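> run fold Plant bHLH transcription factor ACT-like domain-containing protein
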Amino acid sequence: MATKLQRRTTSRRKLQFLSTLSNSKSVKRRSMLLNVLLHCHKLKLKLEEIHREYQNLMAIRNQYFTLLKHMQIPKEVKVDKVGEEFVVKVSCNKGGDKLISILEAFEELGLHVVEAKVCCTHFFAMEATAVDQDQQTTDIKVVTQAILKAIEKQGGDLI
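> ok
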């Protein structure tokens, strides 16, 4: 007798728990179970929809990165002289030891790099500030040509 009562109370607790999960207002067991099943089915459909949306976003992301790899951006090697300093901005395709080649070109020209920012996530980009060590008046065109030669030595196409 005690086991029947225990089973009945545990059954009621479980049904009460299910009714609170599914927000069911019904008192009857059958309708409560149907509401719980309906709620589970709706949750399953939402989960499938989220999964489809995730797959679509991942496909778009992959297409974006594929396009980014093949994208050609206009060439850019820009050298400006601000006082005694040269401000150099370079953008080109990734690959090779471009940074080393550019720094070697600076060394050959007698330029000392004071500050440099380099990014090579999807393409190579560099912004550097260099000062003439020998206090010679180095021309902007000479610096530009040296950088172009250094990049082409590595076989990199400018973006």
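Helices lie at 2-22, 29-70, 98-109, 140-153.
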